[in-house]
Design goal:
With 326 residues, this protein is of the alpha+beta class. 17% of the residues lie in helices and 28% in strands. Strands 2-20-1-5-6-7-8-11 form an 8-stranded mixed beta sheet. The chain has a 6-stranded mixed beta sheet with strand order 12-13-16-17-18-19, covered by helices on one side. A 4-stranded antiparallel beta sheet has the order 10-9-14-15, with no helix packed on it.
Length: 326
Amino acid sequence: MESIGIQPVDSLTITTLVDNALDEFMPDQGPARRVTPMSPKPRRAARFLKGGDVGEALRAEHGFSALVAVTTDGREARILFDAGRTPDGLAHNLRCLGSPVDQIEAIVLSHGHFDHTTGLDGFARMVGRANVPVLIHPDFWQRRRITLPGREPWELPSTSRSGLEGVGFEIIEREQPSFLLNGSVLITGEIDRSTDFEPGFPMQQAFRGGRWQHDPLVLDDQALVANVRGKGLVVMTGCGHAGVVNTVRYAQRLTGIEQIHAIIGGFHLNGPIFEPLIPRICEAFTQFDPAVIVPTHCTGWRAIHRLATTFPDAFIPNSVGTRFEL
């Protein structure tokens, strides 16, 4: 594969807006800057507290969203990556953090599962007419369901194109890699599957041709990649259904850059199908040798524990509101 050029950025900041975990007593660590109970937040009424009010709290939920800010030549630009699971979770946390939504220039949705998309509802209400491009893979719109032995299939809520377009979002569909922000942020598009051990999402089916069909690949799964000057690639996944190792290797092949600075996002290693992969993932991460590893969302506690013990210098636990200055 011939590499495509990616423009280096002077700095990259990733702020976790939605994740499964929240710990306001977590200390700063390396590039991670934490929200604490003393951090300024909006206040709300609390009639059983002396004084009558209390600082708002960030919310954790089963989903993912991050604000990505890149700085080059003194100019900062911002991208929203994913939007979380509930209609108001993302908006609530944006307000608590005081993040200016009118400065977001584009939205990237890693894939079509609703725990990464539903928060666009509250975001649109915050900005009014949402004249923001939303970059997705064409398979994003698939109807899907989860099949587990001994249980009835569970159809996942799917996103409405007319709903997004009706509030002003501009939908951009891309299968192939594409750039944002003057070539400084790469969106992978459909990710090559090169490993022999990452199975995708075996319990998933998609509704095609009038019937439910096996759909383990989640072809709409895509990642965000930036090249921090003098440090290397930062690769951010949503759930990593394509396989986190596949994703990082694809980012290396696309850019022609081997050095990995950070791997951040959901690695989808939770549960009996995926936990046997953890040693293989750690082995591959040893070869990548990233300076920063931040597993989020669907990574699972066993994988997080193994990554923490295998990479004690690189591992950083995540918490909603954390700002990573990379």
